[in-house]
Every structure is written in structure tokens, then in C-alpha cells.
Amino acid sequence: MHLAYVTTTDRGATDRLLSAVAERLLAKGARLAGVVQTNTECADSSKCDMDLRVLPDGETIRISQSLGSQSRGCRLDPAALEQAVGYVTASLSDRPQLLIVNKFGKHEADGRGFRPVIAEALALDVPVLVGVNGLNRDKFVDFTDGAAQALEPRLDAIEAWFDSVANLRPAAE
After folding, report:
1. What's residue 37's pLDDT?
2. What are the DSSP E strand ranges found in the chain?
3. Using an 8 Å Cβ cutoff, are 79 and 107 in contact?
4. Residue 108 and residue 46: Cα distance in Å, rounded?
5. Which of 65, 106, 112 is nearest to 89 (CA)?
6. How far apart are CA 157 and CA 17, in angstroms?
7. Which InterPro entries match (predicted)?
8. CA–CA separation, 35 vs 18, rounded Å?
9. Per-residue pLDDT for the chain (173 aa), expressed as one digit of tens each?
10. Burial class of residue 11 (count of CB atoms within 10 Å of its CB; 0-12, 13-18, 19+)
11. Of 137, 167, 129, 147, nearest to 17 (Cα)?
């Protein structure tokens, strides 16, 4: 099993890092599945719009919803998240060399979202890279039974990890 995660502290840094990882690996010809997130600041709000890009070249899905200027609740659109989950689940049949999941968030901590996709990828012997924030790190460690490897949040460190686990996998049939 090859499972790794990265954690950053700056807002949006994990999203930018995983997007850069995906771009670098795709440019090298790697077969990827998963999602990376792009955040777009909104001029009229302190919140941002959140979009997931389905890898390798799928569509972009807006996963945030506007709840009004006075709202304080979670802006995640669960239906949009599950749409992305469906696309990624289907792409596992293409035997990717790596699954990238932008965030192990509240839905995953509660057993939903990308959590079943992570488990399925690992069962298929597909290496998995996940972004994990401090709020959900304990739940992630519990889910993985401590088997996940923490990587330095640097492009070169992640690329070196990928190269080491990709070389251990047989070529796609």
C-alpha cells in the first residue's frame, strides 16, 4: 500500500501545491486520477469559490454554493462533490499511476466524499496522495490506521515519492 499526505498551514497552499504536482506529473506522462482544487476570490465576499478539476483532463465542477452574505455554515455543495466522486471512481478502471485527492475534509472524516474512493484505489494497488488539514488529521490517521506517509509539502519531495512508488507498480495492461 502506497499512501501519502501533505499538510500546509497557509490558506490555499495545499491546493496550489497539489495542482502543481498534477501539472508536473502530467507533463512527465503520468496517468493520474483524482481532483485538484482551484479557489477564486470573490470581490463581494471574504469567501472564495471552490472548483474541482477532475484529472487528468476532465471537467471543472464548482463545489461551493452561495448561502448568502450572512451565512456562517459550510458552503460545500454535497451533490457537486458526489458528482466529482463519481467521475473519479469511474476513472480508476483506467489503472492510473496515482490518485490525487485535494482534501480529506469533513465529509471524508465522516465516511463520505472521497473516502470510499481512497479505499478502492488502495485495494487496486493505486498509490494515493491526499491533502490533509490540521482539523481532520487525527481522523485521517485513524482511517489509515497510521499507515500513511507524511511528505514534506514541497514539489520535489512529492515527485520523488511518486517516482519511487510508480517504479514499484507493473505497467498498465
Report:
1. 85
2. 3-6, 32-41, 48-55, 60-62, 98-104, 128-132, 149-150
3. no
4. 25
5. 112
6. 11
7. DUF2478, P-loop_NTPase
8. 9
9. 899 999 999 888 999 999 999 999 999 999 999 999 887 655 455 556 788 899 998 888 887 766 555 555 456 677 877 888 999 999 999 999 999 999 998 888 988 889 999 999 999 999 999 999 888 999 999 999 999 999 999 999 999 999 999 866 555 54
10. exposed
11. 129
pLDDT score at 42: 53
Q: Residue 145 carries which side chain, given as an amino acid letter? A: D
Q: Are 169 and 127 in contact (CB under 8 A)?
A: yes
Cell of 92: 480508476
What nine digits make up the cell of 90? 469511474
The pLDDT of residue 64: 73
Helix axis angle, 78-91 relative to 115-123, nearest 10°?
A: 10
**Given strand 60-62, what is the order of strands in its sheet?**
60-62, 48-55, 32-41, 98-104, 128-132, 3-6, 149-150
Could you give the domains of the chain? 3-166 (3.40.50.300)
Per DSSP, helices labelled H in 45-154 are 78-91, 106-109, 115-123, 137-144
Radius of gyration, alpha carbons of the chain: 16
